[in-house]
Structure formats: C-alpha cells, structure tokens
Design a protein that fits this description.
alpha/beta; 7-stranded mixed beta sheet; elongated
Length: 346
C-alpha cells in the first residue's frame, strides 16, 4: 500500500465493532483500512483489570462469523477476547494500523483526506470515500469534582491488585467495576472500604460477584459505607458524607480507587462534521443506515450512544451496525434486523 492510500472506507477504531464493520465491508468487495489511536481492542486492554470476565456469553461476542471458543467453556476474559480479535484480523486479512491517531481531516468532492500520526511522529494521509467512526464511548473517566481528587494516591483503574497488599483502600462506586475491584482487593489482602451513594451494591452487578461482596460487607470483612458521597480526599484520609442523616465519617486510607464510569469524548465526531448533543454527547445519525449528518460519515458501536449512564449499546447489541453500514455504503438492502434476546445480566 502506498504512503497515501486511496481506499473505499476508512474505519476509525479497532475495537470489535470497528473490526466487524471492516470485515463486512471487505466481504462485500470494499477496500477498507482500520486505524486506531491505541492498540486493537484498546478499551478492553486499557480498562479491563487482568482476568476480568465479560458479562456476555461467547457466542454473543463473536464478530464477522468467526467462532469464539473460550477456555473451559466459560465467559471469556478480556485477555482471551483480545487474542480472539487478533485471530480475526489475521484470519480475514484485515488491514489494521494501530497507534495511528487522527490529527486532521478534510472533505471535498473527492472524498475524505484524513491524516494520522504515530507516536514516532510519522504522518500518513488516507484518501477515502467514506469514514466510519467506531471510536467507543468511554474515553474519559467521570470525576467527583472534590478537593484532593488529583492527589497521586488516587487511582482510576485497578491494575494488578497485588500492589494494594495490606494497604487501606477506599473504592468509590457501587456497580460492576467497583464491586469487582473491591472483591479482588480483599482477596489480595487489602483493607477495603466501599463507598456508594446507593443503599446497597447495585442489583445489576455480575451475578457471580454481587452475593459474595454483599456477604463480605454483612460480615464486616469489607467496610461498606452505603448512602455516602466523598466530600474531600486528603493524603491519608477521605471525608464521607452520609446522605440520609447528613453526618460526616473520616476513613483512613493509603489509596483511593475511583470507579465512577466513563464519558464519551465527542471531539472526533465534531471534527468530522457530525452534530453532537451537548448534554448526552450522542451523535445525530439515521438508525437504519448509521449515517450521520457529516458528509459520508457513519457511526458504529458504542460511539453511537454518547455517554451512557446504563449501558444499552455495547458489543452484543451493535453487531447489526455492520450490516446497516455495509448496505448503505454499497447500495444494497440490509438483512432483516434480528433483535438478540439479551441475557438477564446483560
């Protein structure tokens, strides 16, 4: 391929749905390239702690007709799924370029001219008739906006629980990430406190985690501070306010782990001329074609949903985006929409 390739479609985002869009277009005879500012499956690689299992079962995570057979016939881990994505790319011969960050874009009668830059400073210009934005929806961590939030012992990702051995850790949040982190920290012999503004651990936490976590809280092995919010973080303590009786509790800490969810960064959508709702960050698009109001720009996967309070758009519900986009670009009829029967924990 030349340094300035001319292709039919440029897919921005090498997550599962971006790869599925590329595979579907390629199977329809399109010349397609995929670029990503990070690695393949960057959200999974960057945000999943080691050995984290998906909610969804393997067959619901499969893309482009490629079978996913996890070890021990269980729900796949993040590591297993990344290996699966690598296999899909190699098996289908997808043209994927990682660590290519989009720095500029322009559109004229010839189509899109998109510039990407690698960490070494190398620039590349892509000429494409159409662009698909499959950039995800979890680019930024939510914040508390309280004093001390930027102190060095405040973390946003769990990483290896081993580093918190015998340390006093306050986990903030009550959904899946916080619940799983609290449990894994306790298993690594951390001294764990869980602060959540709700009255109990959220009822949609993974069914194999919630009962054990609740039992540990009931037994006092994990200090459950329900109906609380963080007011201030200091180098050796955190001030919590109880919502029901407006009292203050000070918790001694060595580390604070904020598990508050994510927000979408819509700057790339706007760069490509897509109208974005200021409140939700959701782009404007036609759900039958996934075409936005940007010229020859489509959106796929969680990027179509903006910032989600409760995730309703994710891998399992986004497979249909690939067929819709392919039909719109190639001028064919999309296959009948099949709504998957979602599992109770999805």
């Amino acid at each position: 391929m030349s340094d300035n390739p001319h292709i039919d479609t440029l897919v921005i985002g090498a997550g599962p749905i971006g790869l599925e869009v590329a595979a579907t277009l390629q199977q329809a005879g399109q010349v397609v390239s995929v670029v990503d500012a990070g690695c393949v499956g960057n959200t999974i690689a960057r945000q999943f702690p080691s050995h984290t299992r998906f909610f969804s079962s393997p067959e619901r995570l499969e893309i482009a007709g490629q079978h996913l057979a996890p070890l021990h016939e269980e729900k796949p881990t993040g590591e297993a799924y990344l290996a699966y994505l690598r296999s899909v790319i190699c098996t289908l011969g997808l043209d994927v370029h990682t660590f290519h960050r989009v720095t500029d874009s322009a559109h004229n009668e010839e189509g899109w001219h998109v510039t990407t830059r690698t960490p070494s400073g190398m620039d590349r210009i892509w000429h494409a008739a159409a662009v698909v934005l499959a950039t995800g929806g979890t680019q930024r961590h939510r914040t508390l906006n309280v004093p001390g939030e930027d102190l060095p012992h405040v973390h946003r990702t769990l990483g290896d629980p081993h580093r918190f051995f015998q340390r006093r850790v306050l986990v903030v949040g009550g959904r899946n990430s916080a619940a799983e982190s609290a449990l894994r920290l306790w298993r690594a012999s951390g001294h764990v406190t869980l602060s959540y503004r709700g009255p109990e651990v959220h009822d949609r936490v993974k069914y194999w985690i919630r009962p054990e976590l609740c039992a540990l809280i009931d037994e006092g092995l994990i200090n459950g501070q329900m109906n609380t919010i963080v007011e201030r973080i200091e180098p050796d303590a955190v001030t919590l306010r109880h919502l029901h009786h407006d009292s203050i509790t000070t918790i001694p800490v060595d580390d604070v782990l904020l598990q508050l969810g994510f927000e979408q960064d819509s700057s790339l959508l706007r760069q490509f001329g897509v109208t974005v709702d200021d409140a939700t960050q959701q782009p404007s698009f036609d759900e039958h074609t996934m075409r936005t109001d940007g010229p020859d720009v489509y959106v796929a996967g969680t990027a179509s949903a903006g910032t989600q309070g409760r995730f309703t758009v994710y891998i399992e519900t986004s497979h249909v985006h690939a067929d819709r986009i392919c039909a719109a670009i190639t001028g064919t009829s999309p296959p009948p929409t099949r709504t998957p029967r979602l599992l109770p924990e999805s």
